[in-house]
From TrEMBL:
<dbReference type="InterPro" id="IPR018094">
    <property type="entry name" value="Thymidylate_kinase"/>
</dbReference>
<dbReference type="GO" id="GO:0005524">
    <property type="term" value="F:ATP binding"/>
</dbReference>
<dbReference type="Pfam" id="PF02223">
    <property type="entry name" value="Thymidylate_kin"/>
</dbReference>
<keyword id="KW-0547">Nucleotide-binding</keyword>
<dbReference type="GO" id="GO:0004798">
    <property type="term" value="F:dTMP kinase activity"/>
</dbReference>
<dbReference type="GO" id="GO:0006233">
    <property type="term" value="P:dTDP biosynthetic process"/>
</dbReference>
<dbReference type="GO" id="GO:0005829">
    <property type="term" value="C:cytosol"/>
</dbReference>
<feature type="binding site">
    <location>
        <begin position="10"/>
        <end position="17"/>
    </location>
    <ligand>
        <name>ATP</name>
    </ligand>
</feature>
<dbReference type="GO" id="GO:0006235">
    <property type="term" value="P:dTTP biosynthetic process"/>
</dbReference>
<keyword id="KW-0418">Kinase</keyword>
<protein>
    <recommendedName>
        <fullName>Thymidylate kinase</fullName>
        <ecNumber>2.7.4.9</ecNumber>
    </recommendedName>
</protein>
<dbReference type="InterPro" id="IPR018095">
    <property type="entry name" value="Thymidylate_kin_CS"/>
</dbReference>
<dbReference type="GO" id="GO:0006227">
    <property type="term" value="P:dUDP biosynthetic process"/>
</dbReference>
<keyword id="KW-0545">Nucleotide biosynthesis</keyword>
<keyword id="KW-0067">ATP-binding</keyword>
<comment type="similarity">
    <text>Belongs to the thymidylate kinase family.</text>
</comment>
<comment type="function">
    <text>Phosphorylation of dTMP to form dTDP in both de novo and salvage pathways of dTTP synthesis.</text>
</comment>
Length: 218
């Protein structure tokens, strides 16, 4: 595979999806169809159907291990149908969440074990990890306040309404993952104004994937 796989991670309310939506337009102008932007769970028909089940606020009785397995199943389909073909076509792949989310949310947040969830996803992904992960760092309380104040009520999902204690465990999980993968993680201060976060994100991607932007700089 010749492409480059970069993921966006962060706790709820960090603003990574909003940032991604903004950088899409910039990068599409710069590299056109050499860019693929996708998300998890989702990214294709089957994975999006699984996403609906996972995030439906009506599914409060969902077992935690069932939830973790559904994420892994959606990820597997996303990988083989969407991500791998794009990488084989030498595309720059930007993905909103990937394995680290499952390890942090289900492994640490749900307390079913970070190592167990990591192993489950090793099977689902055949050990494929991103080239780099951009982590949008924000205190738990700040992120949850953003959701309460700004997010469309119709878009608040089953994980958004979890307890503060759950979200603190997720954040702790992310910190462990980041520390263990310091060579892969690049952190951005997500408490900055969104324009500053967008600027930092674009700058980082230009630096870690310069081969996609060489023609632009000529």
């Amino acid at each position: 595979m010749n492409g480059k796989f970069i993921t966006f991670e962060g706790p709820d309310g960090a603003g990574k999806t909003s940032v991604m939506n903004q950088v899409i337009g910039v990068f599409q102008q710069q590299i056109g169809d050499r860019l693929l932007v996708t998300r998890e769970p989702g990214g294709n028909k089957i994975s999006e159907e699984i996403r609906k089940v996972i995030l439906d606020r009506a599914n409060t009785e969902m077992d935690y291990r069932t939830e973790a397995l559904l994420y892994a199943a959606a990820r597997r389909q996303h990988l083989v149908e969407t991500i791998l073909p794009a990488l084989k076509q030498n595309k720059l792949v930007l993905c909103d969440r990937y394995v680290d989310s499952s390890v942090a949310y289900q492994g640490s947040g749900r307390q079913i074990g970070m190592e167990q969830v990591a192993k489950m996803n090793e099977f689902a992904t055949e050990n494929l990890l991103p080239f780099k992960t951009i982590y949008f760092d924000i205190p738990v309380e700040v992120g949850l306040n953003r959701i309460a104040e700004h997010r469309d009520k119709s878009k608040i999902d089953r994980l958004d309404v979890e307890t503060t204690a759950f979200h603190k465990r997720v954040h702790q999980g992310y910190m462990k993952i980041r520390d263990a993968n310091a060579d892969r993680f690049i952190s951005i201060d997500a408490t900055q104004p969104i324009d500053a976060v967008i600027h930092d994100t674009i700058k980082i991607i230009h630096e870690i994937a310069p081969e996609y932007f060489k023609e632009r700089s000529l």
